[in-house]
Backbone:
Protein backbone atom coordinates (compact mmCIF):
# COMPACT_ATOMS: atom_id res chain seq x y z
CA UNK A 1 0.00 0.00 0.00
CA UNK A 2 1.28 3.48 -0.89
CA UNK A 3 2.36 5.91 1.79
CA UNK A 4 -0.43 8.48 2.25
CA UNK A 5 1.83 10.95 4.08
CA UNK A 6 2.85 14.19 2.45
CA UNK A 7 6.59 13.92 3.12
CA UNK A 8 7.38 13.57 -0.58
CA UNK A 9 4.73 15.92 -1.98
CA UNK A 10 4.53 19.63 -2.63
CA UNK A 11 6.87 22.55 -3.14
CA UNK A 12 8.33 22.38 0.36
CA UNK A 13 9.52 18.81 -0.08
CA UNK A 14 11.44 19.57 -3.29
CA UNK A 15 15.18 20.05 -3.21
CA UNK A 16 16.32 23.65 -3.05
CA UNK A 17 17.62 23.72 -6.63
CA UNK A 18 14.24 22.66 -8.02
CA UNK A 19 12.43 25.22 -5.83
CA UNK A 20 14.68 27.99 -7.12
CA UNK A 21 14.09 26.96 -10.75
CA UNK A 22 10.31 27.11 -10.29
CA UNK A 23 10.41 30.38 -8.35
CA UNK A 24 12.65 31.92 -11.01
CA UNK A 25 10.14 31.05 -13.73
CA UNK A 26 7.38 32.71 -11.72
CA UNK A 27 9.43 35.84 -11.16
CA UNK A 28 10.33 36.12 -14.84
CA UNK A 29 6.69 35.68 -15.86
CA UNK A 30 5.56 38.36 -13.40
CA UNK A 31 8.11 40.82 -14.78
CA UNK A 32 7.11 40.05 -18.37
CA UNK A 33 3.45 40.69 -17.50
CA UNK A 34 4.31 43.89 -15.64
CA UNK A 35 2.91 42.52 -12.38
CA UNK A 36 6.17 42.22 -10.45
CA UNK A 37 6.86 44.67 -7.65
CA UNK A 38 9.74 47.05 -8.35
CA UNK A 39 11.43 48.24 -5.18
CA UNK A 40 12.45 51.88 -4.96
CA UNK A 41 15.63 52.65 -3.06
CA UNK A 42 13.81 53.39 0.21
CA UNK A 43 11.86 50.11 0.12
CA UNK A 44 15.04 48.20 -0.71
CA UNK A 45 16.88 49.85 2.20
CA UNK A 46 14.10 48.93 4.63
CA UNK A 47 13.96 45.35 3.35
CA UNK A 48 17.72 45.03 3.74
CA UNK A 49 17.58 46.35 7.28
CA UNK A 50 14.78 43.93 8.14
CA UNK A 51 16.70 41.00 6.69
CA UNK A 52 19.90 42.01 8.43
CA UNK A 53 18.12 42.35 11.76
CA UNK A 54 16.50 38.93 11.36
CA UNK A 55 19.82 37.34 10.43
CA UNK A 56 21.53 38.81 13.48
CA UNK A 57 18.71 37.76 15.79
CA UNK A 58 18.81 34.18 14.49
CA UNK A 59 22.61 34.04 14.64
CA UNK A 60 22.99 33.57 10.86
CA UNK A 61 24.56 36.93 10.04
CA UNK A 62 28.18 37.11 8.96
CA UNK A 63 30.29 38.96 11.49
CA UNK A 64 33.06 40.92 9.77
CA UNK A 65 36.46 41.02 11.39
CA UNK A 66 38.37 44.29 11.11
CA UNK A 67 40.32 43.19 8.01
CA UNK A 68 37.13 42.15 6.17
CA UNK A 69 35.44 45.41 7.12
CA UNK A 70 38.38 47.45 5.80
CA UNK A 71 38.35 45.52 2.52
CA UNK A 72 34.59 45.91 2.09
CA UNK A 73 34.84 49.65 2.79
CA UNK A 74 37.71 50.01 0.33
CA UNK A 75 35.76 48.23 -2.41
CA UNK A 76 32.68 50.34 -1.75
CA UNK A 77 34.72 53.52 -1.89
CA UNK A 78 36.31 52.48 -5.17
CA UNK A 79 32.90 51.66 -6.65
CA UNK A 80 31.49 55.03 -5.59
CA UNK A 81 34.49 56.83 -7.03
CA UNK A 82 34.19 54.96 -10.34
CA UNK A 83 30.48 55.75 -10.57
CA UNK A 84 31.09 59.43 -9.83
CA UNK A 85 33.83 59.63 -12.47
CA UNK A 86 31.59 57.93 -15.03
CA UNK A 87 28.69 60.26 -14.18
CA UNK A 88 30.94 63.32 -14.52
CA UNK A 89 32.26 62.13 -17.88
CA UNK A 90 28.73 61.63 -19.18
CA UNK A 91 27.70 65.10 -17.99
CA UNK A 92 30.72 66.64 -19.69
CA UNK A 93 29.86 64.89 -22.96
CA UNK A 94 26.27 66.13 -22.80
CA UNK A 95 27.26 69.75 -22.06
Residues:
Amino acid sequence: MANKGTDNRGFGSMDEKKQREIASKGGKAAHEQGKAHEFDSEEARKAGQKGGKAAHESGNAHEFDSQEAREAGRKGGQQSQNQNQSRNQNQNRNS
Notes: The longest helix spans residues 66-94. The chain has a mean pLDDT of 88. Residues 57 and 67 are 24 Å apart (CA to CA).
